[in-house]
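REQUEST FORM: STRUCTURE PREDICTION
Request ID: SP-0412
Submitted by: Lab K.M.
Chain count: 1
Length (residues): 243
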Amino acid sequence: MRLSVIIPALNEEKRLPVTLASAIGYLGNQDYESEVIVVDDGSTDGTAALVRDWDAGTTSLRVAAHEDGRNHGKGATVRRGFALASGEYRLFMDADNSTTIDQIEGFWPHFEDGFDAVIGSRDVADANVVVHQSWQKELGGKIGNMVIQMLAAPGIKDTQAGFKMFTGACLDDLLPYLQIDRWGFDVELIAAARHRGYQVKEAPIRWINNPDSKVPPNAYLEVMGEVWKVRQLRRAGAYDRRS
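STATUS: Completed
RESULT:
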C-alpha cells in the first residue's frame, strides 16, 4: 500500500463529512492503493458511526479508537493511527479539512529527493493562507514559534499545521520513542526525527482557518510546557539510537 491517511477526530460528526468526501474523492482518482484511518479520540457524538456507515468506494476506510474509549489527546491519537497504518507513506491531516489532501502533490518531489518527512507550513515562501486566524492567535503563534525554535526545532517556521507526511520506515523507527500525548506532539515528532538523523522538509501548503477550531486557548501554554519536556527528553537521551 502506498499511502495511509490518518485523521484524528474528537466529536467531529459535523465537520468530518466534508473532509471524508474530499479525501476519499481524491484518493479514488489515484492509481495507487490507499487507506484512510479515522482515529476516534473519545468522541461522545456520532463520529464513529458516521465513519462506519460511509461509502468509501474502492478506498479502504476504517475507524479506530483507544482501547479504553477515553480521550487521550492529539499526540496519542495520531500515534495510534500511525501504528495501525501499513502505507509506504503516512499522512496525518486535521478533521476540519483546513488543508485539503491534494496538497500532497507538492510533497512527492521532496520524498523523491531523499527526505524522510515533509511537514506542511503556513509560514514559508509560496504558502497560501486563504483565511487567517485572529490577529491575537497569529501573534501568539509567532511568539510561540520563536520559543519552539530556540528549544526544540531550530529553523522550522511552522511546527503546528496539522498536515504532515512521513515514510513508513521513518515512523516505524520513531514511534517507540515518542511520549508527548497532546498538542506538543508535532514538535516532538519533528525534533525526534531530526535527532535520529532523518531529513525533514518544510513545504508550503494552502490553508483555510476554520472558525470552529477545537484547539482551546490554553493549548498554547500546554504546547510550551511540552516543548520544554521535549528539550529535556532529548538531553536525557530519550531519542537516541539504540543497538
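NOTES: The CA atoms of residues 29 and 59 lie 10 Å apart.
Reviewed by: T.R.
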